[in-house]
Request: fold
Amino acid sequence: MILKQLHLHNFRNYDDLTVDFAPGVNVLIGENAQGKTNLLEAVYALALTRSHRTSNDRELINWQAHEAVLSGSVEKRTDTVPLELHFSAKGKKAKVNHLEQSRLSQYVGQLNVIVFAPEDLSLVKAGPAVRRHFMDLEFGQMSNKYLYNSGQYKTALRQRNEYLKQLRSRRQSDRVFLQVLSDQVAALGAEIIVARAAFLKQLEKWAQVIHGDISLQKEQLRFQYATQVTLDDDLKVEDVYQALLELLTKNEDREIDHGSTLYGPHRDDLIFLVNDKNVQTYGSQGQQRTTALSVKLAEIDLMKEQTGEYPVLLLDDVLSELDDDRQTHLLTAIQNKVQTFLTTTSLSGIARQLINAPTIFRIAHGTLEKETEETNETKTDEQVDSSSETE
Reply:
């Protein structure tokens, strides 16, 4: 999967920009606050219909405009798909092959992306909500069914929580309706739990190999899916549904007292074990970063396994947060494998670690300029001359 072309109109600090990208490594270089991350955000938003930096879509629209438009051309194994996304005060509109989609869940998955930013290194040591968001985000790209169930579950959960609050305040007394809501939450929750368990098993397989390579086979990484129902090897949705419904039914009084649903996938967690020790609690910073890097790189292979296409990789200034060994492993792993967009303030060390020369774009004040071979040769000559003068 390759993003061949991207067009931005009134998106963040870009008034109007059309750019063609290379299938390999695309380096976006420039000083801070010039628009590097905004460009990555545009690729992410084109894929997932929302930003990874803000939940307020209005922030994506240029302050002088009323609408922002993203469009792009995605090359897949069998065809090339045009995508288009509109942001406005009225909401979002998404088009695939110039046809508007009735639901955003039908649009997501046309372009798969993985973003790796400095804050993603906190995947291991942050709270459970971060890891639940990670699972929903990544697995939703791989499965429209998971994405749909996740959205439906959040709606059912919100309705049940509102009704629990009404029961607590005595504004309602009908527990029959609560049982109806419990059934909906249990049915959708079971689908999510079973899907997560299956995806995590496959993700663990890929992450173990990568983690072993980075640690020189001194460490073994394992995943533990922490959920409130017992998960057997022969996992069935019906069994999980019955177990979850029983928990909700048994604990109605307790949940009414709290005014919220205390059982379900919205309370689950993902625990990382390195040599059978919880790396969140007992791991060194190096082990935590190796785990986060292993998980992110494993996503690439898992998406290929699940969708038949490699995703697009977005690296937002993450190299500055990794030591030389982890940088080398990251850049080696992506070469000739996935289309990559990498933001940085300096090219130092990057080109030396890549087999094929990257395509370089210089960004300043919301404008973008692609470096040509002539430009590179001129800069190299200038560096040589400068070096000679220094000597």
Remarks:
- The CA atoms of residues 123 and 292 lie 6 Å apart.
- The radius of gyration is 23 Å.
- Residues 377-391 have pLDDT under 50 and may be disordered.
- Residues 175-214 form the longest helix (40 residues).
